[in-house]
Amino acid sequence: MNIVVLVKQVPDTESPRKLKSDDSTLDRAAADGVINELDEYAIEEALRIKEAAGDGEVTVLSMGPEKASESIRKSLAMGADKAVHLLDDGLAGSDALQTSYAIQQVLGRTGFDLVILGSESTDARTGLLAAMLAERLGVPQLSLANKVEIDGTSITVQRQTDYGFDRVEATLPAVVSVVEKINEPRYPSFKGIMAAKKKPVETLGLADAGIDAGQVGLANAATEVVDFAEAPPRAKGQIVTDEGDGGAKIAEFLASKKFV
Ligand SMILES: Cc1cc2nc3c(=O)[nH]c(=O)nc-3n(C[C@H](O)[C@H](O)[C@H](O)COP(=O)(O)OP(=O)(O)OC[C@H]3O[C@@H](n4cnc5c(N)ncnc54)[C@H](O)[C@@H]3O)c2cc1C
């Protein structure tokens, strides 16, 4: 099975996240880059599907600046077989619509039986990629999966819902987005980290991937950040001293905030 896992490098949640004043895009250079949390679950699920099938190949696909190669190497150290790094200045500032177009072009080269990705990123959180990609590829999308079963060309996922879960079935090829309850990602072993250094990473620019420069990048984006403001500093918490009336004071506080 040809499994492609989408991996986005995002700013570490511990790092400061700033938008650049000149073009309102995220200042990725100012923050440490890490694998988007849900993509670690997507990589793990891809590896488990390959191991259960006894053969197949897991390819990591990441669109991002040079720095994203750190996250690509970590994905290979977890056990993915190879990677494609879509790297071109012309992609900077691309919105979700453009990202889905660019990734579709690369998938036209790699081919796929299954595309697996996180249900959302931790920096933009649009949660749009899976649906946009499935639409562009003309294949089924199975979203918010907390369990994936594959039997031949049939795929069934358990889709997390507010009331429990749905079982959704489709035929491969397909796009699956995962949630954090699906598995426990493995840590790269020392052997895995060493092996990752030798695993192939194909770096593609716009021309290599057949991407029309006029359809990607900040200047051509369908969405525009017109304004942004720093989040107000968190107000200091209220300290309640319990002189036997702590419970009453907390109840008063909760009532004053209309929590109760
Ligand atoms: C703060 C901020 C706000 C933004 N707001 C918007 C907005 O409102 N509308 C809009 O269209 N764009 C927005 N963008 C741009 C958007 O983040 C990128 O286009 C991004 O590549 C796709 O959106 P996402 O991360 O929200 O995707 P999601 O749908 O949230 O991500 C789901 C999955 O898609 C995959 N994925 C996403 N991006 C990549 C990538 N570059 N390479 C490989 N896999 C990837 C990952 O597996 C990820 O888990 C914003 C960016 C930032 C930093």
In short:
With 260 residues, the chain is α/β, with parallel strands linked by helices.
List its traits.
alpha/beta, Rossmann fold, 9-stranded mixed beta sheet, two-stranded antiparallel ribbon, 7 helices, globular, binds flavin-adenine dinucleotide
Ligand inventory reads:
flavin-adenine dinucleotide
Topology-level CATH name: Rossmann fold
Give the spatial strand order of the biggest sheet: 9-8-7-10-6-1-4-5-11
CATH architecture assignment name: 3-Layer(aba) Sandwich
Question: How much helicity do the residues have?
Answer: 25-40%
Shape: globular
**SSE-based structural type:** alpha/beta
The tally of strands reads 11
Distance between the termini: 53 Å
How many domain modules?
Answer: 1
User: What's the CATH superfamily, by name?
Assistant: HUPs
**What is the level 1 CATH name?**
Alpha Beta
Q: How would a crystallographer describe the biggest sheet? A: 9 strands, mixed
Question: Mind telling me the C-alpha Rg?
Answer: 21 Å
Poorly predicted residue ranges: none
Task: Please provide the ordered H/E string of secondary-structure elements.
Answer: EEEHEHEHEHEEEEHEHH
Mean pLDDT: 95
Number of helices: 7
- Portion of residues in beta strands equals 15-25%
Q: Give the oligomer, counting copies of the same chain as homo and different chains as hetero.
A: single chain
